[in-house]
Please model this.
Amino acid sequence: MLRKCFLSILCIQLYFNAEAQSIKGPLGQWREHYNNKSVQHLTKGDLLYGATANQIFSIDAKNNITLLGKSNGLHEIEIASIAWDKEQLQLIIAYANSNIDIVKGDAIFSINDIYLSNLYPNKKINNIHVIGPWALVSTNFGIVVIDLIKHEIKDTWFANNARQALVTIQTVNTADSLYALTEEGLFSTALKNNWITTNQWKKLNTSTAIKKIAAYNNLIYMIGNKNLYQLPQPLPIYKQSIGNINNAFVNKEGIYIISTDGTNGNLLSLNTSNTLSGIIDTSLLAVPVAIEVDQNNIWIADSVNGLLLKNTEARFIPLGGPAEKITGTGFINGNYLLAPFGSQAAGFSTYSESGWKNYTKLGTITLPPLFSATIDPMDDSWWFASAKGLLHFNNNSNTIETLTPNTFSGSYIQTQFTKDGIFWALQDEQGLVIKQDAKWSSIPLPLTYSKNGLRKMVVNNQGQAWIPGPANQGLYLYQHNKYFNTATWKQLTTAKSNGNLPSNNVLSVAVDNTGSVWVGTNNGIGIFNCGDITKEVCDAYLPTIKNTNGFVGLLLQRESVNCIAVDGANRKWVGTQNGVWLLSADGSAIIEHFTKNNSPLPNDTIQQILIDPTYGEVFFNTANQMVSYRGFATEGASTQNEIKIFPNPVPPNYNGPIAFRGLVENALVKITDLAGRLMFETRALGGQAIWNGKSLEGNKVATGIYLVFVRDDLGNEKAVGKVVITKGQ
Model:
């Protein structure tokens, strides 16, 4: 089955000596923020193409790198193999789920017949080999032949001559023969006009286990774990003494061999005189898996360290993104996104206007695994929590300090600044740690509370710390005495008059723009608006919503709410095991539901959501890396100054939304022509309003200059701007 789409021409370009730049796309645009350290596949076409786990990259003659993923046209992630069709000038991409994309210019053709077929239980794609107008796709049941002109499946071949499923690892060809490496050995058949005669495969006698094959100049090479053979010679032309051969590339200069010795990778050259020589320092490579040679450039894909280029020197080419998988709790403000790597790797990444940067050291300090981050709103300094204590980095003065506020055992898990300047930290096995008026103090949990496994915390503007209890213990609520007379702890559960939670398995907590506390559980959401908990009952309100079947039920009932984030319009972005839900401010309506099937989300398990308050970009950290979505709401400005309009002027043929940023919250926005006729009227979502470029009657407005009037409801905050439309009707 063929599906065709066209690329959105918003590809992220970077240069060899620079980090990826932060390109703010239009509203509604998605972007990937993948860790691209693991490069799995390479192929040479009109450009050099490569594949990381979830993205395609290309490198042109000027060393520009372009990234291609689900956000700009591809249909899947988890790339299994790639190949270049030099006759039709197109790239073939196979995915782990057995779908196939063919990229030809700006068009992408999707072939999902293998994915949809129920003929074979195991449809894994192992390799793609292009021969003339055909792509031979080696699968775990046979060889699928794709017509590269019609973009459709033409036939299926079986090297066992019996049309019975046979795991086929790879195919290569000489001028007159086709070779298929299978789990039953190496087979060959005559090849005429790029086609074969059915049931004419012959099994070749090979005395060694083979895992890959290569062809050059009518010669076939067999690659085993330790030995490299050239048919029909029975003796190896190369033996690996330590470790294993991973792959080999053959050209007119000889054979390039990549291998691993268990610690380092290696690149060797075996020339036509059978002279062996080393090409690069073995300390650079870890697990090399693929190689392409382009004139004086040797490109090596390393599944651990990334893409290595060897010419006059050897260097890794940065492909952008965080250096590790992000498992810690990140933080975002208008300048930086801080992304700690968590318990599995030391260090953190930052994302800003200059792109992604990665840190394993700060100054002379080698960083430990960091669990969470926050930014001091007073001086923009960075704070991190770890098993060893707290780390404080002032990036203005470039000073670093490590702190251990107490001598108790337990990792520091999460930190937060409240608007009154108090610094809060959650310490596992203990409770809370605060810094107030330059003094540290510890606030232990009551002795009856379970303490091991504290993971999250949020503090509201009333000095109440909301902590999900470990092991289905509901919510732990601490009330500071700065705002109420009595400091106290309270445990909230599903019991009425004692929490009224939808479940005692609390997974997430967030405070919205009105001070309401939204609590996510494994059975939906509860909303708290509590005063002094020593005097008042603190029970959750359980919001309801009309389901698709017409019945009213609890909001996201039976969904595990892993995380909640609040945007500038007080709408709630909710991350679950079933994708992302965008809810209205009060939770009474579902505005969006994004999943991996209807969006570029790489995975439906959402672990954290972060929202850029300035641009409204929403970052989703999933179980399979991070992506972002340019949202429609930003934080409102305190005073109405300049109206920021994008795009302006509006270019010809632009059909996307026009955004007006920098507005006071919920501002009234009116757009008129120069004669004063009202074209459009709306309210800001937080600090941003959207216009579709149409009149009140729904028609595209004509080319010209339009005035933008903004004011708050009291008429105190006003501004006027203009937008130029150049597309016309």
